[in-house]
Write a structure and sequence with these properties.
The protein has 299 residues and is of the alpha+beta class. It has six helices and 17 strands. Among the domains are: 140 residues, Immunoglobulin-like (Sandwich); 45 residues, no CATH class. Strand 9 and strand 10 form a beta hairpin. It starts with a helix and ends with a helix.
Length: 299
């Protein structure tokens, strides 16, 4: 009896040890912390803009070879296209598809004999259009990750939220005065109203050839200069009938002519000196001739 008890005890212990050593791989992978997420997770867009997003996976060091998920999006977004380009999967158990009426996106990808391990694995790309102003949201409604036949727990599946704005609507530019606001004297100030307020430029300064510099504004223009009656209407000339009067030429005497000649001579220093020398010479010659004449007369 004692021998049988010892054998049974040994056998039970062996079974427990074997069970602990052969723990299923699925149990070890259950708490891996794998994450699915959408990028970019936020942003600002106007109604009508396209929003390009990617569905990604972070395996946190674990190896996977299949992902299946369903995403939902609200009424402010519409799917325009889905792309598998650049995906970590080459085989699709469920081809990526979307339904804008149900507002769902579904896909199921697997490795064609390959596995993936990494922090930024792209599964699919989606192009949305911002349909209405408000918040555009994307969320995971279900997800499943596998390695072979083993299901791996997904710790987090993070969606995205975008701010969608009403597109800016502005009135036409209204002209203001030259130099108004922060404009210079050669610029004209302009204003407009935009909705929503502040969504675009609502005032500006533009160069305007009709705006004059301050220096030109202070003085009157050619049209504004004051003119006298004489400048406006020239005086009339008196018309005299008959033959034109004879022009009187003033008579010049000998002394006046000599005075004018002397004045012309005095304008040049060299001419003045030559003239004086000539006069002195004439005087000397005249005195000598007079002396010789008196000397002959006494004989």
């Amino acid at each position: 009896m004692e021998t049988n008890f010892k054998f049974k005890t040994f056998l039970a212990t062996l079974i427990i040890l074997v069970g602990l050593v052969s723990v299923p791989l699925s149990f070890l992978k259950a708490n891996s912390g794998i994450s699915l997420y959408v990028t970019p997770s936020s942003g600002n867009y106007d109604v009508g803009n396209l929003i390009h997003v990617s569905v990604m996976i972070d395996t946190k060091g674990e190896t996977i070879n299949a992902v299946k998920a369903t995403l939902g999006f609200n009424e402010n977004l519409e799917v325009r296209s889905i792309s598998k380009s650049g995906s970590i999967f080459g085989l699709w158990i469920e081809d990526p598809s979307y339904d804008n009426s149900l507002r769902t996106i579904t896909f199921g990808g697997a490795g064609a004999g390959t596995t993936y391990k990494g922090s930024a694995g792209k599964i699919i790309s989606i192009t949305f259009e911002a349909e209405k102003a408000g918040k555009g949201t994307i969320s995971f409604s279900s997800s499943s990750v596998k390695y072979g036949a083993t299901t791996i727990e997904v710790e987090s599946a993070t969606g995205a939220s975008y701010t969608i704005n009403t597109p800016c609507s502005c009135s036409s530019w209204q002209k203001g005065a030259c130099g108004e606001g922060n404009c210079s004297s050669v610029q004209r100030f302009q204003m407009r109203t935009c909705t929503p307020s502040g969504c675009a430029l609502e005032s500006r300064c533009i160069d305007d050839p009709n705006c004059l510099p301050i220096s030109e504004i202070e003085k009157p223009s050619a049209e504004e200069e004051i003119t006298t009656p004489e400048e406006i209407i020239p005086p009339k000339k008196e018309i005299v009938s008959g033959p034109p009067p004879e022009e009187k030429i003033p008579q010049k005497g000998l002394l006046a002519s000599l005075g004018m000649a002397w004045g012309e001579i005095c304008r040049s220093a060299l001419l003045t000196i030559v003239t004086i020398l000539c006069l002195v010479g004439l005087v000397v010659i005249g005195v000598r001739e007079w002396w010789l004449f008196q000397k002959k007369r006494k004989k």
